Amino acid sequence: MAPHPAPSSPKAALRQAALARRGALAPEARAAAAQAVAATVLAMPALRAARLVGAFWPIRSEIDPRPIVEGLFARGQRVVLPQVTPEGLVFREWRAGEALVAGQFGLSEPSADLPPLDPDALIVPLSAFDRNGQRIGYGRGYYDGAIARLSRWHPVLTVGIAFACQEVAQVPAEPHDRPLDHVVTEAGAVPLARERA
């Protein structure tokens, strides 16, 4: 069997190590973490005020945001999910019980027949994060692009969710990287450096 190629950048190495830690978590720990994260996220006053909340459908070993979505629905908030397009992420409304369609990269997405909508809050997936609110995604820049686009018209609340084991000492941030407003793990809201300044 051929050896795996070495990660090509510091970000890639951090991503690979964090995803390995994430992948090693037991199913019971994952389920408990998702519930703990949902409780913290749903208690955020700024999220409660959001008109449309962008969430995502989990793939691979991602923390499951569906308990958050269930809580949003329970209190009458609307949810949009992303669709990957050549132009970037497009968000379309999803209602409980509606079928999703298979998209790129193993994603489950709303039907492309639904109208695009711009959320004013985003629950953001990630592979690694630091205490400056910087995140490493999956290397394609979709969320950085979406946050930049949405922020042109109005402030967008960004909440990254992850397992605590995905924290790294420092993400090598690049000019296009957008720091998150909040990061939440099963241990609670992560105190970000700018909040202590």
Description of the structure:
With 197 residues, the protein is of the alpha/beta class. It has one domain (10-189): Rossmann fold (3-Layer(aba) Sandwich). Helices cover 29% and strands 21% of the residues. It is built from 6 helices and 11 strands. The strands form 3 sheets. The chain has a 7-stranded mixed beta sheet with strand order 3-2-1-6-9-10-11, with helices on both faces. The termini are far apart.
Major beta sheet, specifics?
A: 7 strands, mixed
Reported CATH architecture: 3-Layer(aba) Sandwich
Beta-strand residue percentage? 15-25%
The percentage helix is 25-40%
The CATH topology label is: Rossmann fold
Low-confidence stretches: 1-7
Q: What is the strand arrangement across the widest sheet?
A: 3-2-1-6-9-10-11
Order of helices and strands: HHHEHEEEEEEEHEEEH
Just give the CATH class. Answer: Alpha Beta
* Basic shape: globular
Question: What is the mean predicted local confidence, pLDDT?
Answer: 90
The total strand number stands at: 11
Oligomer: single chain
Distance between the termini: 50 Å
CATH superfamily: NagB/RpiA/CoA transferase-like
Q: Into how many domains do the coordinates divide?
A: 1
Protein structure class? alpha/beta
Number of helices: 6
Radius of gyration: 16 Å
In short:
The protein has helices at 10-23, 27-42, 45-48, 66-74, 142-151, 193-196; strands at residues 52-54, 78-85, 88-94, 101-102, 108-109, 121-124, 128-129, 135-136, 157-161, 182-185, 188-189. The chain has 197 residues and is of the alpha/beta class.
